[in-house]
């Protein structure tokens, strides 16, 4: 019988020399499991970037809200304009509108603008409507021995935002502003009861907090403290100027608030009229660039006393007296003048397009100038009460009044 060659015989190997298939398969399972866990934990590409980092986090935007308020028809229109801007910039947070409880959303006629605007805010800009009893503070000054003069300020209604405790954080805004971008990043600030910019245009140091923009963690206890303080009344000058809200917010939070940079969160139209911009820029070393400042801004507050409101169609004379002077040149134009005029024109245009309301006719400019000059002389007394020079432009501002 022929003997088989060695290569024809069954091959038997030492098990210790054979790599284990089971071991390799187990490693594959480990690798697949690890990759699956990584896939589950990896942030969604739709997540919101964490502020100041390249990371992303998931945000439940229903925990946050913007709040605006209205005490009259003019303010209602301006509040709706803010809501329109938030929608246009794609803000993800809720929107809340406080308004007098004697208004309603039933449109009785084509002239019922209040109801129409409330419905517009609710149906088009997804605002949650809150009819409320307006907050107010009174200031009393003796006119003569027979008559007392009472002044009332309802701008303190903005503090109702402190009562929205079902939100983790609320951004309370004034209505007579122009938003240049979304403010959603402010909802993700570190934990703090209040975050606000300072009124950098004032003479006193430290600069007082400005109520144009308040990032708050709602608290009914804080709201009750504010209401109690309002019952005590206020300085009649501050009440008449609608500045009492700044006084009580500074009494409570001046030393403890998280301070937001006024650049870009507290730009004013008056800044484009000033000659010295070191306070806004943060120092004298940086060169003023009006276009750059405007582009980086997030919010612009209209503040050009004695111009009372951007909804007024001011006369050519008043604009000529108040516009940026372009370094002393009354002819031609410059970036400051273009931006300043553009902000007013844009406000009136949006008021017409959003609210279907025309600009108001301008009052007598010569009379305003005569009334404003004595008011300017009262500036030191006003500063002593509030440390706030918004009652009159400072000496570093541009032209105040024409001759």
UniProtKB/TrEMBL annotation:
The keyword Transmembrane helix applies. GO terms for molecular function: transferase activity. Keywords: Membrane, Transferase, Transmembrane, Transmembrane helix. The chain crosses the membrane at residues 28-44. The keyword Protein transport does not apply. This is Glycosyltransferase family 8 protein. It comes from Alternaria burnsii. The lineage of its organism: Eukaryota, Fungi, Dikarya, Ascomycota, Pezizomycotina.
């Amino acid at each position: 019988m022929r003997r088989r060659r060695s290569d024809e015989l069954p091959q038997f190997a030492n098990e210790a020399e054979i790599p284990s298939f089971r071991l390799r398969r187990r490693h594959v399972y480990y690798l697949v499991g690890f990759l699956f866990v990584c896939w589950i934990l990896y942030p969604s590409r739709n997540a919101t970037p964490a502020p100041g980092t390249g990371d992303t986090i998931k945000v439940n935007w229903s925990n946050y809200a913007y709040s605006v308020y209205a005490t009259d028809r003019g303010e209602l229109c301006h509040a709706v304009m803010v809501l329109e801007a938030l929608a246009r910039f794609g803000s993800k947070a809720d929107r809340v509108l406080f308004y007098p409880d004697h208004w309603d959303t039933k449109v009785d006629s084509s002239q019922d603008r209040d109801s129409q605007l409330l419905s517009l805010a609710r149906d088009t800009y997804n605002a949650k409507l809150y009819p409320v009893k307006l907050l107010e503070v009174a200031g009393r000054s003796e006119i003569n021995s027979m008559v007392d003069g009472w002044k009332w300020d309802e701008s303190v209604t903005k503090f109702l935002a402190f009562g929205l405790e079902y939100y983790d954080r609320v951004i309370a805004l004034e209505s007579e502003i122009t938003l240049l971008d979304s403010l959603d990043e402010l909802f993700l600030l570190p934990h703090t009861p209040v975050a606000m910019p300072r009124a950098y245009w004032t003479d006193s140091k430290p600069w007082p907090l400005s109520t144009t923009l308040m990032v708050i963690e709602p608290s009914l206890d804080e709201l009750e403290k504010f209401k109690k303080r309002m019952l005590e009344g206020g300085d009649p000058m501050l009440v008449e100027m609608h500045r009492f809200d700044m006084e009580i917010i500074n009494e409570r939070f001046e030393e403890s608030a998280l301070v937001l940079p006024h650049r870009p969160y507290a730009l004013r139209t008056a800044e484009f009229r000033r000659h010295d911009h070191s306070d806004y820029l943060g120092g004298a070393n940086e060169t003023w660039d009006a276009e750059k400042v405007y582009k980086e801004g997030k919010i612009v507050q209209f503040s050009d006393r004695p111009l009372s409101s951007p909804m007024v169609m001011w006369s050519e004379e008043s604009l000529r007296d108040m516009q940026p002077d372009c370094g002393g040149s009354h002819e031609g134009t410059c970036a400051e003048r273009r931006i300043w005029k553009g902000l007013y024109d844009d406000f009136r245009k949006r008021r017409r397009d959003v609210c279907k309301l025309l600009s108001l006719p301008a009052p007598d400019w010569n009379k305003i100038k005569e009334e404003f000059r004595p008011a300017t002389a009262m500036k030191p007394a006003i500063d002593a009460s509030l440390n706030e020079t918004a009652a009159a432009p400072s000496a570093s501002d541009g032209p105040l009044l024409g001759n």
